[in-house]
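Entry type: protein chain
Record version: 2
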Amino acid sequence: MQNKNIVFCLRRDFIQKPGGDTTQMESWAKVLRRLGAQVHIHAGAVQPEDLRNADFVFIWHLERLHESFQPWNVARKLNIPVVLVPTYWRRQKAGIGRAFTEQIKLWARCVRHGRDEALLSMFFRSWQISRRTLLQDSAILAVNSNAEKELLLRDGARKEQIRVIPNVINPEEISAIAQQPWETREGIVCIGHFCPRKNQLGIIRALANTGLRITFIGAARPMHQHYFDRCRDESFGRHRFTGPLPHHEVLEFLSRSRLSICASFAETPGICNLEAAGMGCNLVLPDIAPVREYFNGRGYYIQPETIDPSVILKAFNEKPAPELRLSVMEQYTESVLERIFSTLNEEAM
């Protein structure tokens, strides 16, 4: 994709409420620009003139169709190749409850923005049909692991569409922050927005009688404010809640922490997990296929449904294997991404 004109389409609130997709987008944009591409970023709905000169359109989120279907539809009508970044979270097919919830979101978006032709085209389609359309008719599906690839193939994706593009970190940012010696480190960090899927409440309850103190970095979106309040109430002042922090401050927390913990019920390998490993932290991770693919036996694994506090205590007290940081710095950095993007072009379509 050298010297191409590329448009990135993300959810409307990616600036106000940054997440893993925001970090991924910024990393990809930087690498593509280094390759000579022109990268333009749009939040929310687009107009045909926003895309007309694009060689490729990157669209994030297979699941959040109330955000992604509209720019996808506009790009397809203009015959512009779409690179869909699924940001795949689910471990199994969506049930009736999930499909119904997403259908309501689609209809609400159509009613609110009903003058948009692309949105109107969704009004008489089910969420499941619209999702299948994106899955099967995008030029490229950019997945972050082979495990995610297998999930999508079972959902009906075509093998020739899929390109595995791993999550990566910036080694210069990691190296710019001095890492404290293991013996002087004390903290445990949990990074991510607050929601039931991220399972912060499960961590708090599992560690209630251990004496361990966690710094939770992240905020709650409006629909999960009640969940955030429950987490604070049940922590009884034992844990620290910083809210969202600038990226360099997050890295500084990691540089002096012993352990980073993630207990999500469904998860990608997670850029924050890669950064924690790069900063010399031990990792406690959910036993999920994409996560194991990245970290293999170099992390400590838990079942999110029944978190074993002894695993967390062990990971807190044991120095991480040197191979953990080395593997991340060799396999999951921006230089890897640059090699992939330099060959991902129209011949690969």
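Comment: The mean pLDDT is 88.
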